Amino acid sequence: MKKMMSQASCRNGLQVCLLLLMVGRLQGRVTAPERLEAPVEKPFTLMCSVLRERGESLKQVRWLDVQNQTLLSYLPGQRDSVSGQQHVELASSPKDSSAITIRRVGFRDEGCYTCIFDMIPSGSKQGQICLTVTAQVTVDSNKTAVSGKKASLSCSYGLPEKVQQIIWRHTSAQGDSSQVASFAKRSDPMIEPPYQGRVWLSASLSDSQLTIQPVAIQDEGCYTCLYTTLPAGQKSSTVCLATYVLPKPQVSYKTTSPGVIEANCTSVSRPPAEIVWNVERDNRTMGPPVTTQLPQGDGTTLVISTLTVQSGLLKDVSVKCLVHHKGLESPIAVSMNTKIGTALTILISVTTVAALLVMSLCFCLWKCFLRKEAD
Ligand SMILES: *[C@@H]1O[C@H](CO)[C@@H](O)[C@H](O)[C@H]1NC(C)=O
Ligand SMILES: *[C@@H]1O[C@H](CO)[C@@H](O)[C@H](O)[C@H]1NC(C)=O
Ligand SMILES: *[C@@H]1O[C@H](CO)[C@@H](O)[C@H](O)[C@H]1NC(C)=O
Ligand SMILES: *[C@@H]1O[C@H](CO)[C@@H](O)[C@H](O)[C@H]1NC(C)=O
């Protein structure tokens, strides 16, 4: 910024340029950026340069930290002369300048740093750099949750020391926005009345976690976590949640005319399921399946796939309806044959039990009768 300004001024005229150089001289001949922003948890390099005049030599360079304590000092050209604190190191820099790297910037590194060039014979020249530590709000990537189960959304900010409070807001697909929960320093998490009992917020300013259990269809939408920080103001990030209702498909069928069976495979889900039959290409199906979608009032969709087949097909091959849904790892298969099979098994079992009962009754009666006769 400063450099750009001086370049612009230089273009305007040599006189202004000279004036600027003189001002620089009066300020002590050390150039350093006045203000810098350093992202937290990352290395950061600070650099100062000194204008050395003919006959002058640089004896020592010192850096002072935000508390004016020596951070690092060294004699130029002598690698083993470097001494200083653990969390900083000397970085390479052009001639007549000095650079140090803070290995991992933290909240405590915020403040003003001083670079001091001890010159012979003219004495010490110093410059100052003020560092502001910054952080980003990071949030999960978009999520899906199954209705009735649990959903957790998390959001974090690298500088909890600067945070006053965090607020979570929900915005529905229709655009309605409402506050869900908040947590402020030295207080308990607050859940707004409509969400009480099924929404929880962690008591943390750095890593905030919003938990919804059980998840409802109306919880779908985008959630914004809003950090109020000092002195930077508000910072936020948004994550979106989709809620799924998993299908529980069923097959029903009836004989519509002799030798012809109409089968329905039905599924209620969100988003709508895709239904296919495993025998669609068999020549004994009477045309392709007919699918209808009926949106239900609660946000789910009823899908009915109707397949008409010749009854002979059921005797020879297994007929299944396969329900595909985004929320399922593999499709759900519902077989028509097993239904017939089960019905038949039940019928046989019931008949057998009944026959046994009748037989034992007869045996009993016969025995009693025989005894009586013997008496
Ligand atoms: C460090 O020294 C400068 C003057 O050189 C002074 O303005 C500043 O307040 C000092 N800072 C601390 C933390 O002592
Ligand atoms: C998250 O979902 C929202 C809305 O569905 C979309 O606008 C946004 O691009 C998604 N973000 C990512 C990272 O996929
Ligand atoms: C299949 O669904 C349709 C409605 O889409 C209905 O009219 C028909 O009676 C159903 N058939 C069976 C066997 O359930
Ligand atoms: C159906 O296909 C089989 C062979 O896959 C064939 O033998 C049969 O005649 C066909 N039936 C009809 C009604 O086309």
Automatic annotation (TrEMBL):
GO molecular function: cell-cell adhesion mediator activity
Keyword Cell cycle appears in the UniProt entry: no
SMART domains: IG (SM00409)
Record domain Ig-like: where: 45-115, 121-242
Localization: Membrane
GO biological process, one term: negative regulation of neuroinflammatory response
Membrane topology: Single-pass membrane protein
Leader peptide range in chain numbering: 1-28
Superkingdom of this protein's organism: Eukaryota
Protein name: Ig-like domain-containing protein
Pfam families membership: V-set
Keywords of this entry: Disulfide bond, Glycoprotein, Immunoglobulin domain, Membrane, Signal, Transmembrane, Transmembrane helix
InterPro entries associated with the record: Ig-like_dom (IPR007110), Ig-like_dom_sf (IPR036179), Ig-like_fold (IPR013783), Ig_sub (IPR003599), Ig_V-set (IPR013106), OX2G-like (IPR047164)
Transmembrane segments: 340-366
PANTHER family, per database record: OX-2 MEMBRANE GLYCOPROTEIN (PTHR46841)
Gene Ontology annotations for the cellular component aspect, listed alphabetically: axon; cell surface; membrane; neuronal cell body
Organism name: Dicentrarchus labrax (European seabass)
Keyword Phosphoprotein: no
